[in-house]
Give the backbone structure.
Amino acid sequence: MKLVRIFFEKRDRARYISHLDITRCLSRAFARTDIPVWYTEGFNPRIYMTFALPLSLGYESGCESFDIKLTDDSFPVEEIPVRLNPVLPEGIRALRAGEPVCKAEAITQADYAIRIPDEQPEKLAEQFRAFLDQPQITVVKKTKKAERELDLKPLMQLRSLSCRDGWMEAELRLAAGIHLNVSPALVLEAFAACSGRTMDYVRVERLAILTESGADFT
Amino acid sequence: MIPEKIDRLLLRTQKPARYCGGEPGSVIKEKDQVDLRIAFCFPDLYEVGMSHLGMKILYGLLNNEEGTWCERVFAPDVDFQQLMEENGVKLYGLESFDPLDQFDMVDFTLQYEMCYTTILNMLRLGGVPVRTADRGNGWEYPLVIGGGPCACNPEPIADFFDLFVLGEGEEVVLELNALYRSCRREGVDRREFLRRAAQLGGVYVPSFYQVSYEEDGRVKEVTPLEGAPAVVKKRIIRDMDKVYYPDSFVVPFVDIVHDRAMTEVLRGCIRGCRFCQAGYIYRPLREKNPDLISEQAHTLCRSTGYNEVSLTSLSTSDHSGLEQLMEGMLSWTDGERVNISLPSLRVDNFSPKLLEMVQKVRKSGLTFAPEAGSQRLRDAINKNVTEDEVMNTCRMAFEGGYTAVKLYFMMGLPTETMEDITAIITLAQKAVDLYYSLPTRQKGKAVNVTVSVACFVPKPFTPFQFEPQDSLESFKEKQRHLVHSVTSRKIRVNYHDAITSRLEAVLARGDRRLCQVVEEVWRQGGNLEGWETHFDAARWQQAMDKFGLDMDFYACRRRDYEEKMPWDHLDYGITKEFLARENQKAHESVAIPNCRERCAGCGANKLVGGVCF
């Protein structure tokens, strides 16, 4: 049995596939190939599949990953993207496969590009900067169990801010992982409340998933 | 790629993956490579429509034809519809995102009566005038075509459709395509196309039939115009082993109602249950070769990645080669981790061997449909099942480790009395008692018998087409009586409000005068009415009142055998004399043997050259 990590991208209309649906979609894709993937034991066997950091509905990403197990150790892992890609839906593409290096727990931060269309993006950028410059950015984070107040300020970092062709683009590094995860939605919600704008249409792309040292999750 | 106008809206909707297309198995063609574009519409939400086998078959068949591009269209949920309207987005095909009004043909499958208002809603959202008369004589708008079970009496929606296809579609849709192409090449107008289409067998052009009424509202005469045939005969596929079957399905991203591969085992039914429209309009029985079924199932599972395949038909256990089929299936399903699901099993031929094979793959609840509580009533409706058979099947199920059984019944059946209602609970109680009498039962595990009781709706082309439906008051009284009769906490009773069934009864046997009612209900907001939350009975009552029509006339009136029915000019192979004969037998509580045992002379044998078996 061999543990394999597969990196994939989720773009364009594939961003409308929810995390739950992605799992099912990938399972079916494997079933359409002859990759010797391991199924769980038990009454309803399913493909063992764990995701490092689930991606929210509507977000694009070029750095997603999940782990599977192979029943045949001699199966060449570089074959996985080759065989998987022809049966994956448009927008999802396996990029590479290999032995996992990091544990999922090692993830502490992630980079996102947030793109907002606006007739005057420069003005919006100004507002966004003012929003970030607040001494404290308090939001209410809802979990399944409870709601709690959270100061976003120490949990995010602006990496770049630019404007072009009617879009404002901000690149943010946010706390991520199983311990404390800040979703771009939380930031956008706070920005909407602060600026009084409605955020009907925003494009979010996850650019990188990082460990403590700032290195890519591999 | 999704057009930005639509893309901007999707994240504001629930489950946007229903509106973005791109599912594995969906077919994309180059627009300049096709000369005929068809929008196949299912007038309900994505989750329901995507579960429908007929759509999958025709989608595959049409896209298999060079030059034809068939796309899928479903009704948007309320939230998305609102966004579409606010932002000027027309209802579109999921493959190209082009609006309905840009297609050559807009096909609707008519699965149940309560979807009629949704059809109008979808047409309007797609930019297509809802009335045929408003679509002109040119080619500005697509042809609006209907098919499916409700096409056997399409009169309540006749004003909205250019044509209906009667019976099985695999051959006639391709004939229609060919005719359409030649007509467009020739440059003929819409009316001339319809004139020629009416000459194809199985094509009903409602605007070519003039209906007159008696003073009391009954149909007086139906006069064909423009050389259309006096009687339109349904189409049928003679050889199920040669008919097209898709080797791939569109596999949805979101969870849908029936999310699995499906193979068709047989068409038609030998049983002749007198309440069941499907049992008559799909006659006669035609089986598919067991090896072919297994092979098609295997191909589908490989191409879709589904880990469940269902063997579908009206009565799968009536396939004469079922055990061979199951053995063939199990030879590959086990190794490939595929579950077989077997809907529509009958209680009288559920053999231990079969149960064992089903158990190999899945253990969930078992569902049986005795339909009526007493033997007398089961005989009257020709449900040839005895109490012993029901009990034997329950015994097999319990001994096989099942602790939950679902029993389906109907109320309001012709000749029914309160004793028959009591008998439903008596039967359920016997199943409970049986469980506790078995030494093999699992200790400490309680049994659960769920009794689901639907309100009977008399349908065209059945022996009960002449029958009145129970009044609402009668249904209510019977439901009260049913609940009061329950003798054990192990029995759970489910039933629905009878008002929906009453409207189904109105529409099922309705005439053309109901078109204005359907339109009015839609104009007053009627949409997605198959969902209880969207259904409003008052709206229907008001619309009926507005046009001086009476629900009781349609739902609760007994028809003479001689009365001219609104659908009498449509021929499904079954003679009216046969239906009248069967109706009489029902009133004598006499059952008849199934088609395999003895031919009852329904007339459907003529559809397949004279001999069914």
Notes: The CA atoms of residues 121 and 199 of chain A lie 14 Å apart. The mean pLDDT of chain A is 94.
